User: What shape does this take?
Amino acid sequence: MSINLEVPKKFGMIVNQAQQVASEVFRPISRKYDTNEHEYPKELDMLASLIDGMNDSGEASAGARGVRRSDNGETGNRNGTNMSGVLSIIEACWGDVALVLSMPRQGLGNAAIASVANDEQHKRFDKTWAAMAITEPSFGSDSAAVQATAVLDGDEYVINGEKIFVTAGGRCDSVVVWASLDKSKGRAAIKSFVVEKGTPGMEVERLEHKLGIRASDTATIRFTDCRVPKENLLGSSEIEVEQGFAGVMQTFDNTRPLVAGMAVGCARAALDEIHDLLIEAGVQIDYDRPAFTQHAAAAEFLKMEADWEAAYLLTLEATWMADNNKPNSLQASMAKAKAGRVGVEITTRCVELAGAYGYGEGSLLEKWARDSKILDIFEGTQQIQQLIVARRLLNKTSAELK
Amino acid sequence: MAATRSKRPRDVMGLGLAALNKFASAGVIDRLNLRKPAERVVYEASRTGFRAAGAANRTFTAVRGRGKPERPVAATARGLFDLTPSDEQKMIVEATAEFAAEQLRPAAAAADDACLAPAEILKRSVAELGMTQLAVPEALGGMGGERSATTGVLVNEALAHGDMGLAVACLAPAAVSTALTLWGDENQQATYLPPFVGEDVPAAALTVLEPHVLFDPFALKTTAHRTSAGFKLHGVKSLVPRADTAELFIVAAQLEGKPALFLLESGTAGVTIESEPAMGLRAASMGRLILDGASVPPGNLIAGGDADVYADCIRLGRLGWASLALGTGKAVLDYVIPYVNERKAFGEPISHRQAVAFMVANIGIELEGARLVTLRAASRAEQGKPFARETALARKLTGEYGMQIGSSGVQLLGGHGYVKEHPVERWYRDLRAAAVMEGVVLV
Assistant: This one.
């Protein structure tokens, strides 16, 4: 055991594959699907089957599927699928965040399934493309305020409610829906259910028009007396008041590092672009000489890269802990908070540094500055991450520190 | 030409006020009983002001080394990402943390006030922690551990959790022994290393910094000229720890247009030491080293003036300061958590307010981020990988967020943070150093 913060060589191929996809598939179509919001990126079907092939042969982990925690009895330090998953997300999002979010069978709902499903469900839903449906018109961050209901009737749950901001909600095969079994029992009664598309009573009502990630569809879905088999409830159906929210919230420990990775990848794209533009403009960047003795743009670059590096390593740390079965709620939220905010800071600053060129649609800098903003909002806003970190550090409950 | 902005024009009234003020403060200077009026304002303001020749209580006898210089065992390359310290590191860190909590923290306020580290503590840092010997190979009388920059980071961090000023005082001689181990030739090692592995370790300092704005360690104003008898050094080095008692310096000076490192004994003619008390790090007895034609024997140029060695020295120094800032930053976090949980306002603990709680969260987030970046740089250094980039990023983060953490620490305690009853005002002063200092400590 020795301290080492380099990515192991064994992930070289996975990282390289993601880099190739990012620069050869995503980048060339990036602007097209930003301009034509809601048009289905047909190129992704080819890519998805390619990735399925690689997954089947155990060679790749290109999305959110690899977040399942497994204890295979191995002892000692492990670098596993949580880390390789986030590494390929970073590289893929260097290409285009919105297209990554639109990748068939790589949705955040898949991460939820991977995190909390039992083995039978894991197998049954392995090939599905699952979106995540938590938010409702009346709440966002306060996910305990779920109004949607699920009532057991025979062998089926009957789901009623309206879900908004469902990423890939239009294109996915199924949706992981959060609904309450009994609203009088509070957050412990909130469970997640897999609802397959085409189930009667489930209707995609509309798609949003957005600031960024336009290649990714964001849907409103209404459930009216929508009946799903009771085996589609993920995790335990018991309402354990003691355990509270822990079951469904566990998903976030695994998905937050992924979203942090998206912000890291998107910010890296902007940093790499501005690096080359500055060099072209005759600005020299020197890691040894003090920043204040260099060009102001070089000093700004060094500051941005420092913040980027912190976000990158916090993200890797969170996945490393997951791979080693260490509790990582604190680190996952730290990663998400840092990556979310520096993602926005870096991408918007890069537009400023590049001036009119960066602001215009002729470059992707302005697009990344729009795309990055969502990464500081979904899967828990900046402020929610800070709350979680604060509660952990201060040892406070959510009732004490609201 | 742009007009000066830092001075206000003086009119008749101002002239009168200046004269009155001079008269009113005359008594203070008398009470200070300084030996002679100093040239710089700082001596008038300081209770510990002095100007003297370099300390000269030890003679280093030039010894010819045999064969080749000894180097520490290089760390082995690693495969997997891992944040777990080795068992050896855990032991060293535990002992250091205990020393910091039991020896440094209780002595910190008084040492800060006196601008002096207690001799007992300096002695114990050597006797109990082997401070100057950790990285020295066994053949040279050291502990012969694997060359480990990450161990250096962890040790600095643990020490600075106790107190940064005292940590610097303890670590200053270790930087010299580490530099000799890493880059000294066989004669330099044979001549200068033995006292550092003995019981009576000399005060010593590796000095790079100079007292001018926009200082760049790669463009020094201190110069070295070749003479028939070696080199002559001219210039002023700034914020040198334990300067008045140091017996050996490693001095950075510009030689033929390139920065290089020289071994300089403090008793050399042309060496003058002046006190230079600063905002923080006061326990380290900072001073200036004034070089007025101090001569250095030809064999005392380190590594033949190799530019790569010099750059590595600067980088390892920056990692040293980054890790000190991490330790003091952690001290701030550990101090404010119980405070904001216990302090009540408007009927409940102030930690129940997001404005307070989020400051604590951000201390935690930025500290952890900066820590990982620093560890990555150190880990690359000890594996022989390029580490200039990672070092620059670690320095930026610890400089920037270190200061922010220091400021948050005072802010969270409000008025109580501003007075010396609590240590946070000292940590505020110390943390500013992380972005300013060069050299002095090596990991």
Remarks:
- The first strand of chain A starts at residue 130 and ends at 133.
- Chain A touches chain B through 51 residues (CB under 8 Å).
